[in-house]
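Morning. Coffee machine broken again, so started the prediction first thing and wrote up yesterday's gels while waiting. Chain of 132 residues, entered below exactly as on the submission form.
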Amino acid sequence: MKVFLDTNVLASALTTRGLCAELFEVVLQSHELLTSDSVLHELERILPAKLGQSEEVTKGFINLLHTHSILVTAEHPFPSLPDPDDEPIVASALAGNASVFVTGDKALLQLQSIEHLPIISPRKFWELLADR
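Came back before lunch.
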């Protein structure tokens, strides 16, 4: 399965040892992880500034993502999302033909899907994996 993890899920995977960390490990081991430059740049910005991660930890995590994910680039941002910052991220997930977009963003979760792409919470994704 091609899985696109939103920035907030990846940040939680690094900074906590909970559900998002477990999901991240499962996706790395058993699925195709998709990401984008927009996600990587946002992680570079928020991990040290908002989440107190060192530059070394931040760079290590970005390198891990570069090594173990497929970097997808969208031609154009997806228009008309509640948060314009989400537009290039969702567009990349669509361009990469992701099977699922996993996010903790309530505004995106309310959409439930965009085009063919289901938008689900980390908990729902965990349940989906458990049902397989």
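The beta strands are 2-5, 32-35, 70-71, 100-102, 113-114, 117-120. Going to sketch it on the whiteboard this afternoon.
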